[in-house]
Write a structure and sequence with these properties.
Layout: H1 7-10, H2 12-26, E1 35-43, H3 72-82, E2 87-91, H4 96-100, H5 103-109, H6 122-126, E3 128-133, H7 142-148, E4 152-155
Parallel strand pairs: 1-2, 1-3, 3-4
Length: about 160
């Protein structure tokens, strides 16, 4: 496995823009001024196979209450449901290929999806004390800006 940075990160303009936004917007906000006592994460259902499932790679090609634990982002949502005072994690979006086969309805039924799915801005997430970086299907840009912030960043292993 060779990890290659996303093209946005190879372009210095993106990195400088995000760095400036985080450092100028978050530097005046101390850790104590941030909100939340639980670890916060929002993201999509990347890494969940939809129309591209390979039984040799994935534990299951079916997503339901019994198999959600095999997919790290769905498992995180389940942990959030079980430990709401410690973890605030929801899917904030569903990939189009997953919507096409009805996985959005499965996620709603399992209470893994935000009530009103949307993109959370970096600025909104920077207001949180504890941020979680969770692997997906590509390199995380969240880890870059989160580590520049005054938030405590946890990285899923």
């Amino acid at each position: 496995l060779i990890r290659v940075p996303m093209w946005e990160q190879l372009d210095g303009a993106w990195s400088r823009k995000v760095e400036h936004m985080v450092l100028s917007g978050d530097s005046s906000r101390s850790f104590d001024q941030k909100i939340g006592k639980s670890v916060f994460w929002r993201g999509t259902d990347s890494q969940v196979p939809a129309q591209d499932c390979n039984p040799e790679i994935h534990h299951s090609c079916i997503v339901n209450s019994e198999t959600a634990r095999y997919f790290p982002r769905l498992r995180l949502g389940e942990l959030s449901n079980a430990l709401p005072r410690r973890i605030d994690a929801r899917l904030s979006g569903v990939k189009p290929r997953a919507v096409a086969i009805g996985l959005d309805r499965v996620y709603r039924k399992l209470e893994l999806l935000d009530r009103k799915p949307r993109d959370w801005s970096i600025e909104e997430q920077l207001r949180r004390r504890f941020l979680l970086d969770m692997d997906g299907s590509s390199q995380s840009t969240r880890l870059y800006w989160a580590l520049l912030s005054n938030s405590l960043v946890l990285k899923q292993a």
